[in-house]
Amino acid sequence: TIWNDYMATVDNHSSQGESYVYRYELYRLVIEKLGESPFRMIWGYGPQSFPSLHLIGSINGRAMAFVSCDSSIAALLVETGYIGIAIMGLLLLYALLTAFRNFVKLPRPKDQLCILFFANLFAFYFEMTNVAILGWGQQTILLWMIIAMTMIYPSLLGSETVSQAKLPSPRTLEHEIDDPFQDVTPSLAPSR
Fold first, then answer.
1. CA-CA distance, 47 to 171, in Å (whole number)?
2. Which end of the chain, N or C, is less packed with Cβ atoms under 10 Å?
3. HEC string for 60-105
């Protein structure tokens, strides 16, 4: 049942619960490593630097070497420091809030795509806390595509409304043409 699955995640000695213990230990080690130097705390260790840090932690009393970073948030933190995680966090949060704001602001049914953008972004951000999904090629490309669509969607609706307003109605076209069979080709005779 769902309750049993949930209870397994809070049991530190089950495989599901130990997975969370691993993540908490990973965050603790990353924050501890950044705290060793004010420069590293601000700017981090650089891209793809996690394996060279040789972090060793303890999971349920067993020593464990962390050779890969299984959290995009922890990876961003250790690679870019607090400045980098703040900039990236603001960028990602802005896209999420834009999707929600557009959902609230736009009339139905045009708002429905915004809630889809919001749900996709929220799910991706949650996954970033649990797996190193931001470094994967295809998923990251999809993330930036969803962010781009989220940001441009209201503009597309605005240009759609403007272009529809410029189109003449069929009734207007009927009145402009007296004889539907009249010759509308330009005359080849020289004009004087």
1. 63
2. C
3. CCEEEEECCCCCHHHHHHHHHHHHHHHHHHHHHHHHHHHHHHHHHH
